[in-house]
Structures are given as C-alpha cells and as structure tokens.
Design a protein that fits this description.
This protein is of the alpha/beta class and about 625 residues long. The chain is about 45% helix and about 15% strand.
C-alpha cells in the first residue's frame, strides 16, 4: 500500500447510538476522522425510525466512488441500541458502500495514559473537554486507530461541529436518480455522470475530491452560496485571470502528496520528506509571487483585487521560508543537475568537500571541450546509473576520429548517436561519486535542521492547498460556462431569500445527454405548488423531473446550472421516489416498498422541500393508484 493509499485508509466514521427507554427516537453521536486534512467533524442528531437524518449525514460524509477502498474503517458504538432499526441501518450502509464493525459496549472511560488531547490544537482541546460523549468517542478512535497518537498529529487536529441545518438533505435515492456519480467501479461499465462532466474541467486531484464533497453537501446558507457564485462570476468575467489561474494550477506540485510525506516525516520516516520536497514548495511560492505580479494587470473590480490580496497573503506567510531555502540550499545545482545539496558556505567541512567536487566536475568539463576539438562536433554530458557521467556525440564523427583508439569504451549506440567513456573519465567518476557521498553525509545534520524548520510551515501549506483547491473549482465552474452545447448554456442561478418558495427555470436541459430538448418550469411563488407531468412512453417525463432536481441541487452547491435563467429559494432537501422493486429477503412486495419510501419521504420533508415522485401507485390498480396520488398531493 502506498503512502497516499494509507492516508485514505485512515478515514473513519464513528457512531455512538443512544436511546431512551420507551422512546422510538434515537440519538446518534457521530464523529468523522480526516487525517489528510487534520480535521475531525462531529455531529449529534435526533432521528426517527426511518433513520432519515442519519442517512443524510452519511451521504454527506461518505465517498460514493472511493469508499470501497475503506471498507473496514467505520465503527458503530453501542450497536444493540439500534434494535429494530438494525436492518434499516444495514441496508443504508450497503447503499453507500460503507462497511461498519459493531461494538456492543455502551460505555468507555477515558484513561490519562491515552493523552488524546495532545493531537488537538489548543482551541479544539477546550471543545473536547466540554463534552463527555466526545471524550468517549475519542477513546474508541484511539483504540481502533492507535497510529493517530503518533508525533505527526500532535497539536494539528481541528475539531469542528457539523450542523446538518447548514446543508440540504439528500438521500441515497436522490444521489442515484440525479446520476451524480458512477454507480459501479468497473471501468468497462461507464456512463456519463454529473461528476464526470464537471471534473473534466478540474485540474488537481484534490480538487476532484473536493468537488465530490461539494456535490454531496449542497448548502443552505445563502451567504456561502452567494460567495461561491461571486467567485465563479469573477472568473467568468475575466478571461485573463482565469487562464493565468489555471496555468498556475497546472504548474503547482501535488500539495496533498507533499503533506502526506511531511506527516510521515514528523512521525519518524526520515526518507519521506527531503530537500527535493522543500525546493518543490519553494518553487510553488515563486510561482505564486510571479502570478501575483502578472495578474495585477487583469484586475478591475474590488472583488478581484480582494482575490489577489488572498494570494499576496500566502506569499507573505512564506517570506521567511523563501529566505531559509535561498540561504541554505544550492538552488543553482538543483536547477542545473537536479541534485539537492546544502550550500557549501554553511560549513567549513562542506566548503572543503564542495571545492574538491567542483574541481573534479570542471575537469570533466575540460575533457568534454578537448573531445569537441578532436571530433569537430558537439559532445554532451549524460548521467547514467551504471557508468556515472558519460559522453554523447555523433556516431559518424566518433567512427571517423576515435574508433581506432582502444581507450575509448562505447557504452550505448543509437541510430545517429552513441555514448562512450574513457579511463580518465572513469577515475573522475569514482572520485566524484565518493565526494558526493561524503557531502551528503556531512550535510545530514543541516538537512535535518532545515526540514524541522520547514515542518513549522505545515499549517501554512495546508491553508495554501485549500486556497488552490477552491480556485481550481471556481475556475472550472467558469470554464463550464465557456463551452455551450449548441443552444444549451450554463448560467449562474439567483438565490431567493424571501419567505416564498420558488423554483423558476427557463430553458433547462440535462447536461449528461447529447441531444436534449430544453424546457421551462415554474413552481411556488404566486403560481402552483406542484406540477403533474403526463405523456407517452419515451417522451422525456423522467428526464424532465431529473433535470429539475439537478438544477435545484447545483444551485445550492453554488455552481452554474444547465439553464438560461434560474431563480430558486433555499430548500431544506430534495426527495426522490423513482422506480421500485420488491425485497424478497424481507418479504416486501413492490407496492409495499413503494409505499414505505413514499411514507418516509412525506414524514421527513417540510414546507421547504422539493419532492419528486415518478409513477406513484404503479404497483397497484389504476383506481387505487389515482386515489393514492390524490391523497399524497
């Protein structure tokens, strides 16, 4: 397992189940551990017999595409309290591809020797001390994942409360019906999904993971949605800024990977984070500095100048870091030969070895110049694993001038060129190899001190990574709007904060379909509260209702919607009941399953919810189905 895979495997969901005697409702204390971002999210929810709120939370916390790689990383505490809801919880976990292990014990005591507070920042320590339940959950976390007590986590974790009220409620049915993600991990079974369509414009891998989180966590806070839309609008109105930002992202190193190596270095793996990684971060800061200088000419509005100030702040935070690298790392050698050495001026011993090394390298250069005069053509230096430095030149010139001389040893031959060595070069390679080994050994102490200082910038690197991720997504959303599909376009939605519920969409279309007829929809306001769609088979009824739900969801994510114009009020949730089948293992017929899902939808929704039902009552007679439809409406 690679380091990256190991970090992903460490993600856990812990659930403590608590119920009151004689009360059908249950309380779920939930905790999610995210080692890669050094964050723990916790939430306490009160739920009904259908586990609707828990389902919505797990949809937000799960990764429907990558969770299969974390199949044994989730735990249920005091599982016996689930009672009759155990089967419902099991089917929910299966739908989300989450595997849980069950613990029947109901109490854990926090022992002093665990010292779990040490992994949290000072602010999060106070949050942990204020809740006995959080302390009990942390005991389980440490018991199941003792590696969290490693030095690499000390003082870095943040404990954040998740407020379900800040996010739109989505159930598993909505995720499937809206075709947000691939339903299978089999690469042969491919189909166009919303995630595939949007992620094709996202540059970084972490940006794609964050996109997945945003799609699973549509917002209900108008100010946060407005902020995302304003950032997309800024990029959409400034082509030069968008192009420069995307060029910066393409040149940026994988900060996720660098952070993973940094955490392992803190935990004692000496070879995980090296001078190469320090220089990679240094080069990123130089790119950011160049980006700030170049994009200042594209900025016209106050929001754009504020955006640039964000990057200026990052560059300022790294100012001492830049000086540290420039004073201690031989950047000229790193650029020229990809060798990463501490500057010889840092130590008399390094100075002595460095002078001898440079003299031998100059001697190799003099040999090359001498050969160029002899061959009357260019001679290049190449580095090889087996022979060290060798000469490369044209095959015809070598055969004509030097083939008669036995001291020249041919290493490799190609169509028009060959590489060769000679005894003087072999001796010089041996000396250079020995000097480099001595230099690396002598610089070890300085390297350790330098990296220990770089570690103190981990929080700044984390913040920089988050900024780049967000700009990657905002610029990708803007890029979507630049590529219309014939007459179908993307536009930014207007979020309505009045008390009147409204969903007004003009010329909406489904972006996953190659040929799609656009339609209008008006719901709420002074108009109707509901719409009934009728028509022949294959007429597009299901596509219409799916598109309506998709437009509402993307608007709450804070991204462009597939429509010419869209006005939508804040919704508490989107509920779908599309299609049904029997459950033979539980003795549930198609009609009963349909009624259970509908009842769950009606009990869980409120006046701000969007309900979408396809062919209600199809599992019974026409007369009874009509009566059910009327009663539900």
């Amino acid at each position: 397992m690679t380091g990256s895979d190991d970090e992903r495997f460490l993600e856990h969901i812990f659930i403590f189940v608590k119920n009151s005697q004689g009360d059908p409702t249950k309380t779920f204390h939930c905790l999610r551990v995210k080692p890669m971002s050094k964050r723990m999210d916790y939430c306490t929810i009160l739920d009904n017999e259908f586990l609707t709120n828990l389902e919505s939370l797990l949809v937000q916390w799960s990764d429907v595409q990558e969770s299969q790689y974390c199949r044994a990383s989730n735990h249920v505490l005091n599982a016996r309290a689930l009672g009759s809801q155990s089967s419902r919880f099991g089917s929910l976990a299966e739908d989300l591809h989450l595997a849980f292990t069950f613990e029947d014990r109901s109490e854990w005591s926090l022992t002093d020797d665990q010292g779990c507070e040490s992994i949290f920042s000072n602010e999060s320590k106070f949050v942990l001390r204020s809740s006995v339940m959080l302390q009990q959950l942390m005991t389980l976390v440490i018991a199941k994942q003792p590696s969290l007590m490693g030095r690499k986590y000390y003082g870095y974790f943040e404990l954040k409360a998740t407020c379900p009220e800040n996010f739109m409620t989505l159930d598993v049915s909505a995720i499937r019906t809206l075709n947000l993600f691939p339903l299978t991990s089999n690469p042969k079974e491919t189909s166009s999904t919303i995630f595939d369509m949007v992620s094709s414009h996202v540059i970084t891998q972490m940006g794609k993971r964050t996109l997945r989180e945003w799609l699973l966590q549509p917002l209900r806070v108008a100010s946060e949605i407005a902020f995302r839309l304003s950032c997309v609008e800024m990029y959409n109105g400034n082509f030069g800024l968008r192009q420069e930002t995307r060029a910066l992202l393409k040149r940026s190193p994988n900060l996720d990977k660098l952070l993973s190596k940094l955490w392992r270095r803190i935990d004692g793996c000496q070879r995980s984070f090296t001078l190469v990684d320090c220089v990679a971060i240094y080069n990123l800061v130089l790119e950011l500095r160049h980006f700030v200088d170049k994009t200042s000419q594209f900025l016209n509005t106050e929001s754009e100048r504020g955006y640039l100030q964000l990057f200026r702040g990052i560059v300022n935070d790294f100012s001492n870091f830049v000086q540290l690298i420039e004073q201690h790392v031989d950047l000229e050698r790193a650029d020229a030969s990809r060798e990463y050495f501490i500057r010889a001026e840092c130590s008399p011993q390094l100075q002595t070895i460095g002078d001898a090394l440079r003299e031998d390298e100059k001697e190799i250069g003099r040999l090359r110049v001498s050969l160029e005069r002899t061959l009357e053509c260019n001679v290049n230096l190449l580095e090889t694993v087996k022979f060290g430095t060798v000469f490369e030149t044209k095959k015809d010139a070598f055969v004509k001038k030097l083939s008669h001389c036995s001291k020249y040893q041919i290493v490799t031959t190609r169509k028009n060129t060959l590489t060769f060595t000679l005894p003087e070069l072999v001796d010089l390679n041996e000396r250079v190899r020995g000097l480099r080994s001595r230099y690396l050994e002598s610089q070890r102490e300085f390297t350790e001190m330098l990296i220990e200082t770089v570690i103190t910038y981990s929080s700044v690197i984390l913040a920089t990574n988050q900024v780049l991720i967000e700009q990657d997504l905002f610029s990708a959303f803007s890029e979507m709007m630049s590529f219309p599909q014939s007459d179908n376009v993307f536009s930014l939605p207007q979020i309505v904060t009045s008390s009147n519920n409204v969903l007004e969409v003009q010329s909406m279309w489904h972006p996953c379909l190659k040929e799609c007829v656009s339609n209008d929809l008006t719901l709420g306001g002074t108009s109707t509260k509901g719409v009934i769609i009728t028509g022949p088979n294959m007429g597009g009824k299901s596509t219409f209702i799916r598109t309506a739900g998709l437009v509402a969801l993307l608007a709450h994510v804070g991204m462009p919607v597939p429509a010419k114009r869209c006005r939508v009020s804040l919704m508490s949730g989107i509920y779908f009941r599309v299609g049904a089948s029997d459950v033979q293992q539980r003795g549930i017929s198609t009609f009963m399953n349909e009624m259970i899902e509908t009842a769950n939808m009606l009990r869980s929704s409120d006046s701000n919810s969007l309900l979408i039902i396809d062919e209600i009552g199809r599992g019974t007679s026409t007369y009874e189905g009509l009566g059910l439809s009327r009663a539900i409406l």
